[in-house]
Amino acid sequence: MNDTAIPLRASSRLRVLIAALVSFLLVAAGAVVAAPAHAADGSVGASVTDASTSGVTVQVEASGLPDVAGAYAALIVKGTEGSISAGGGYAAFAMPFPSVSGGATSFTLTAPAGSLDRTQAYEVLVWQQHSNPDATTIYARGDVEITAEQWDAVFGVEPGTDPGTDPGTDPGTDPGTDPGTDPGTDPGTDPGTDPGTDPGTTPPASAALEVFLDDGTTPVADTVLQAGDTIVVKGSGYDPTANVGGRGAPIPANLPQGTYVVFGNFASNWQPSGGAASATRSVGAQGWALSESVLDQVPAQYQGAIRAQWVALADDGTFQATLTLKDAAATPGSYGVYTYGAGGVVNADQERSVALNYVIPPKIAISAALATAEPGITASVTGTGFGSATGVYAALIETGTEADVTAGGGFLAMQYVRGISGGAFGVDLTAPVDQLDRTKTYEVIVWKQHTMPNADTILARGAVAISDADWDVLFPVEVPTVETTVKTATAADGLTVTAAGSEMGTNPGAYVALIEAGTEAGVTAGGGFLAMKYVPRISFETFSVDLTTAAVTLDRTKTYEVIVWKQHTLPNADTILARSTVTITEAQWDALLGKKPEEPKPPVTPVTPPANVPGGSLRWAISSSFADYVTGPIAQGSISVSGGATRSGGQFQFGQSVGGDFDVATGVGSVVYRGSVRFTGHHGVLDITLSDPVIRVTSSNSATLFVSSGGSQVAFATLDLGNAVRTTANGAVSYTAAPAALTDAGRDRVLSGNSTRLNPVSFTIGSASAAPAGTSGTIAAASVTKKPTLPATPPSAEGIVIDEKNLAALGAGKAATVAAAGFQPNEEGIQVVVYSTPMLLETVKADATGVATWSGTLPASLEDGAHTLTLQGSVDRGLAFTLNRAATVIGACTVEGATLKWGYKESFRTYIEGIAKGGWTLTDVAYQYPDYVWESGAGSFDDKTLAGLVTFGGAIAFTGHEGALNTTLANARIELAGDTGFLVFDVTGTTQDGASVDQKGVRLAEFALADAAVVDGALSLDAVPTTLTAAGAAAFGTYAAGEALDPVTAVIPVNAECGSAAPAEGESDATAAVTAVSAPAAAEGAPVWPWIVGGLVVVALAAAGGVLIGRRSRTSGAAEVTTEV
């Protein structure tokens, strides 16, 4: 029972991987608070199948459960489900969660001996996942009978029956069963392991607390403090051996948890010993007082988090902590310094506090919009935290010009704000348009009344963000235009059109052409136009030219237009400056082509037309998938309807036109509709127009749909009328939801060889009619956000706040955390950029106070030397630092012969080979579907920190859209940075959206390393999911950050010394087994089971002696291979 515990021989990587698994389970499961389910009348049959000194194993068969996929199950003391908490309340928990099929499940529960009590009765409980067990969530329960013989097998013969095992009969004869005689398992009776019982050590006195200014000697007293100030906290009488227990993570529960040293805003009744909830304690800054000997025993994965706020707690119970003050998130009470037991431990003696005179400086929030009364900008200002002030001045000024402000000027708008109540106010400041300059920036300042604004009187200030859209309204951008008029129209001389251009801007010259409307894609230097002229010199942004074409080149059934485009280019969406439709009157057509003679018609027997035949129409989405593609992030295009067509509810609508010969009696014939739908994308490379659909019904079951495209009528789709709904009413025939299939001609002649799934077609054959009501013009367009350009040099080198430990970590290339204030509240898209050469690392979001925080590592490809880390958003903040990785000895292990497999993104490869009509060229890279494969990677790897860089080289050049897309990913690398890995490339060329790119060392994709392991001399990644980084999105230009990419597979061999177990050191019970259970949710009513499950994962692994890393001990004669679970 009380055999001396023997520590497992395993490196810190064991704890890393176990904790990673636990963390995943806790985060994923603990975030869910499910609504209670109705209890079911299920039944449980449970029987003990094994009993030994290790514990008992129970086989469970449950039935009558509800229709669910899985459930929670546990072995508990009978009737005690109400006492289950994050700290216990169960003897065993079913892992993995039992799966339920057909209302039944079968599983085993193994309870360690330490969780059992032979004096209690036990039962098995089965209940709803993600909930606490109660009358509304329990599915089934059943008793477990444990016999006396089975109890004896666990605990030995019951005390009192065997004098040799009775702890009261002979403490010196059976140390293995006498908890009072085993120094190896009872630290409470071993003077060498329990400083609290060592007669040579005097226990610390009662805890006491003192607070000083940053010099560490001047008492803080009533000194006014605010955010950014530094204080020194000195404590005494804090027992370093106290506070054992708690949640078990990050510090194992059998170690002292230490003491929180906190600056914050706490309620009057804040003490945990009084049962106060965590909501009564709002933390601004925190230190963690802990003995260094305890800290050294904390699992490796938690060391960094604790050391970032660690305060050394001496053996005599004293500590000294330095805290940088910042506002607490909430204000339940008063600001001060507080101490209390860490890790969930309650210790009333360490609950101490010192009140501080902390003030929160005033703040303003600003939103800018177009003024309503007159042209200009109105800045709406909301002020908070202005204390007892009854009035202030507020002004809208050019940024940084407060020194010019006087009573009579120096501002764009100013208000004297009176009657401030509760320290809050709101005011609107309007700047007229004639005082604004788009090239300048503006801000609002608020200062003390009856003073001038300066550093001593300004209470708050904030930038005014004016959107580009608002600037465009105030200062409209001149857009080139062209006006066309018919100058002459005769059969002999042809048609002459005068084209007058204006607002041509800085364009020195342009091409002007008369073309059939919409056919600019066919224009070349040698044709595709009716007339063209080159305007070599544009004076004062205007020009006027005449374009003449022979009458025989014209067709009165078509429409013509004049286009103007940039010289030395071909016309497309990016180069066309202006276009205008040419209006030709009927009289002018007659003059050109003569009057069209009426065709004689054979006599027909008059038929009385049906009265009030409904109007005909065609309603068709064409292809939803194609439309989504056109307006998506790849094509970045738009859809427009014209010529009488409309769109409503996702359907393109065409009215019935004259013509057609559909016979209602026979049910066959054709019907003509009018209108056009145009799809454009890829900056003009994709340009497809479908016009004037015609449906020719050939039988009761089939029809063909024709469209006009490129000047020709094309059989675009076949219609299955047999599977459509046919109705007739008042002489009109309707077909609803007729399945449509794309023809080969439609694919090749209209869609440029690209296949797509067509939507069903609905149409009515009736009388000539306009299209049903809907939207016309541009009805859909891609939302394209222009990527910001990174400044070539750091915009700022100051303003980022970082403590010494994080600065040292940053300089060593390790994980670090930085923060900066002054951004807009909740501002998004703040770019984290490192220089010398600008390299985008990530984008972050500011909190409600405008503070932006970034945690991460610098790219391994960043060279040692002087650099600047910046946060760029509405304001810029920076930090100059020196990178010196050499001092950290990164890459202790040599890597050779590594392999990498990654397909980038399957849908992108399909797109390249399909719509883009492109491909890829490989250099020192192979393609083995579905992956690109790199071999012979070499570099370095640190087994302890899981950091390293492996370089593969090679290049993949993607091309498409006739060269519009030409992007190369070169010099492939795998960068490992602790719990995160990156795929790093040099990205050059032209992106899909037409932008040029030349960026080195881009962290293109990232992946998690939580379950990575060094096994048999190699670190292996097996189909690990990857996502596009913010830096990758900026460089590659096709997808947004966070887009799922193909999984990565890699094998990284390391040399023989890497992954070897260190010589076994004598570990105490405090480090032999760790129960890593994260803190349960603080909100009342949140379920505790996700946290319990996480704890049981570790308990199960520790009990079984299993580990996640396969290693071979090099210190013993025989190979010792650990079990992989």
Automatic annotation (TrEMBL):
Signal peptide: 1-39
Membrane-spanning ranges: 1088-1109
Chain spans, region Disordered: 156-206
Pfam families in alphabetical order: HtaA
Keywords: Membrane, Signal, Transmembrane, Transmembrane helix
Stretches assigned to the Htaa domain: 616-763, 898-1049
Ranges of biased composition (kind: Low complexity): 159-204
Keyword Membrane in annotation: yes
Keyword Cell membrane on entry: no
Protein name: HtaA domain-containing protein
